[in-house]
Amino acid sequence: MSAAPVLEVREVTKAFGEREVLRGVDLSVAEHEAVALIGASGSGKSTLLRCIDLLEEIDDGDILLDGEVITDPSVKPVAVRRKLGVVFQAYNLFPHLSALENVILGDRRAHGASRGEAEERGRALLERFGLAGREDDRPDNLSGGQQQRVAIARAFAGRPRALLLDEVTSALDPELVGEVLAAVRDLKAEGMTMVIATHEMAFARDVADEVAFLHEGRIVESGPPQRVLGEPQQAETRRFLSRLLEAGRA
Amino acid sequence: MLGGLAALVLTSPGWPTVRETFFSWSEFKNCFPEVLEGFWLDVKIFMVVEVAVLILALAIALIRTSGSPALFPVRLLATVWVDLFRGVPTILLVYLVGFGVPALQLEGLPTEPVVLGGIALLLSYSAYVAEVYKAGIRSVHRGQHDAALAVGLTHSQAMRHVILPQAVRRVAAPLLNDFVALQKDVALISILGPLEAFRLAQIFQGENFNYTPLIAAALLYLMVTVPLARVVDRMGGSGGVR
Fold first, then answer.
1. What is the DSSP string of A16-82?
2. Domains along the sequence of chain B with CATH
3. Do B242 and A84 touch (CB under 8 A)?
């Protein structure tokens, strides 16, 4: 990629107590590019996404957003988070708010939109993700797939520079996975820059421009999906993919 | 069982005397208007103190649950506040504030018994209610805070728009429970002299050597606390947000 990267992760380390979760991660995401992060549970995928959104403090290294070092102590985390969107594995919708209120809360309170314009945008977003008519429903009354689509609309409502998706289908019943993946594909088609932590290899192959394999806190292999998933060069990648194949997930 | 108990009381050898000294209809009619007027003072004190308790307790709970290192000294103070005022019997606080503060003879401090009694109740109940709020705040899943920050809210916006609405809904029943307790404990202010329901009932009782005025006061308290208790029941059933 020739354009300046939107997101850049340089030599990032992060430990929780004694446990080193990230041990020097490098990653670069160009504009309009989708990078799929793959790796076993506990390999550090979620932690890396949380570090990028400054929900966790890194121990060492730098993270850059549009060339600015956002992990610098002088940078206000709130300002950075307003430029990023996150979709969580467990949706994390606000249960006391309706679908529409979930989507517009950030637009209204963080981005200063008026109720009117935020609602207009929110309704359009819900409709776009197939949720027209569910605006006033509480998350309790929505299926897992619907909840996750509300969460995607919520993350997208802040007009982010990049979206961080943390295993957005892992908590879903198998028959609901497709509708959520379709929403992500839709965002990719419109050119959204994304980092996607996922267990869905077929999806990674389909939607990602680049696949990065995270193993024991390091990215041991990355490249185009056909190569990383089709002809992996590293022994760890091969082992990981063959285990997935046995489990019928690849 | 209640019927058996009633039968036991009604057939007891002392019942005729008890009926006359506790349940005299003429005494009741005689004292009720004034006791009712006194009760109005209870209700007013209750309402003012309750609002103050809700605000102060929330502030204490927010300080206690904040993780900010800068707030450490205030957090320590809040912890001491809760330990101290929750650990001392309310009746003792009423004595200490009600008689201690005026004895200092300092300019500008309140000397009105009603105000001093209200302050004593505020000290005690703010400590209890702060702990109820705190439990509610702690019960909201951490993912909610993450999600609130992720959509770009500041920590205090996350508290106000995401954490507190859920927390308060969850602890609405225990909060109301403390309302009921406070409504009753307003009677403790009578120690300091204000002519509230219990105090007036005591005066009537002393005058005529008849306990009926106390029964009248008890009935008035029940008229407020029983409906409150029904509201608590209803809230306990719906359980709030998961």
1. ETTEEEEEEEEEEEETT-EEEEE--TTSSHHHHHHHHTTSS--SEEEEEETTEETTSTTS-HHHHHT
2. 25-238 (1.10.3720.10)
3. no
